[in-house]
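Quick one, probably user error.
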């Protein structure tokens, strides 16, 4: 028996090391899950900002092709978020409506001009850093904004 550690036993040697290794692995996994959720939260706020700013640019444009202006506002933005996330992973769609009643039951994408209400939609495809935490390999963040087109406002009668 060891005089220095009277309670030390051959059966218990290395137990602290094993407990540390297993505890560290669980703690590290929890930390990585938290980091992944923080990244998703950041991306969610960046998608919100992108759709808000791009729809503002598009709806106040005198150009009648709002979908092209909306897409170019996302692609050509020199904001900070374009240096962090890839603008090529955005999918953009715009639907136009004549009234809010039409918007309540959308028949699908209605492309055209001279319609006062637009639904701008931005979808961002995110590849998780740690896909083991999610069921899918690709997460999709989607945001929509209804906007009244500033240069089509005279047709808005509601």
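Nope, works fine. Designed sequence:
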């Amino acid at each position: 028996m060891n005089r220095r550690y009277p309670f030390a036993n051959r059966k218990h040697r290395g137990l602290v090391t094993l407990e540390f290794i297993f505890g560290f692995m669980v703690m590290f996994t929890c930390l990585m899950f938290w980091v992944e959720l923080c990244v998703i939260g950041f991306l969610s706020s960046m998608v919100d900002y992108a759709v808000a700013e791009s729809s503002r640019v598009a709806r106040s444009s005198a150009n009648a092709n709002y979908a092209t202006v909306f897409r170019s506002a996302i692609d050509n933005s020199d904001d900070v978020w374009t240096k962090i996330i890839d603008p090529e992973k955005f999918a953009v769609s715009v639907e136009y409506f004549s009234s809010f009643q039409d918007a309540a039951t959308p028949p699908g994408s209605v492309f055209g001009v001279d319609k006062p209400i637009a639904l701008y939609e931005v979808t961002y495809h995110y590849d998780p850093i740690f896909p083991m935490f999610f069921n899918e390999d690709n997460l999709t963040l989607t945001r929509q904004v209804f906007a009244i087109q500033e240069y089509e406002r005279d047709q808005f009668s509601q």
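The chain has one domain: 13-155.
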